[in-house]
Amino acid sequence: MAKESDLPSMIRLNIGGKKFCTTVDTLTHREPESMLAAMFSGRHTVCQDSEKGYIFVDRDGEHFRHILNWLRDGVVPTLSEPEYSELLREAEYYQLLGLIERINAVFNKRKEDSEPDSELTRTDIIKCIQSERVRFRGINLSGLDLSKLDLSFVDFSYACLKNVFFSRANLQCAKFRDVDAESSIFHNATLRECEFTGANLRGALLAGASLQSANLQGKFFLCSE
Question: What is the CATH number of domain 118-225?
Answer without folding.
Answer: 2.160.20.80
